[in-house]
Amino acid sequence: MPQVQSSLSQLEGLCKASWEQLKLLDKADEKRKQGKGEKKRSQVDSSTDGTVRRRLPKFLKECEERLKVLRAVHRRVINRFHSFLLFLGYSRAMVRDIRAEDFCKTISDYRAYSGADDMSCQSTHYPCYNSSTCHHRSCCWN
Fold it and tell me: For labeling, which of 39, 121, 134, 137 is most exposed (least CB within 10 Å)?
């Protein structure tokens, strides 16, 4: 799951950059307010800008909290996956090296090869009566 980790890191970096940009905008706004000889903005423009400026910190704070939750969920899923592999009998060294995508592909390939994906009597609880493709002959044949 390195892809998930890198995506979370990218999101975290974007969030931090957004905080920095917001701070720069606030500093520029303060300088503009202190400057003399400025043209006055219309009331509509300043109220819209003020609303967005008030909402941005709240939005960025929510993004940070959600990123923390996503990291915790990712960590828990990986820990459960590793525990599952240990339960199946993999060694600790193999558990560290195996990727979830590779393991799931192996399981998927096995299912496709064994015919477990076929709509047969085992999955539908109805006899399939197709002896040429049925992998469960003991339950399908009369």
Answer: 39
Residue 65 phi/psi, 5° resolution? -65, -40
Print the domain residue range for 22: 2-32+43-98
Per the structure, how many domains does the chain have? 1
pLDDT number for residue 136: 52
Q: Report the predicted TM-score, pTM, of the whole model to 2 decimal places.
A: 0.62
Average pLDDT over residues 5-34: 90
Model confidence at 50: pLDDT above 80: no
- Establish if 133 belongs to a structural domain: no
What the block records as the tokens of 2 is 């390195």
Residue 76 DSSP label: H
Contact 121, 115 (CB under 8 A): no
Q: 69: which 2 tokens?
A: 């939750």
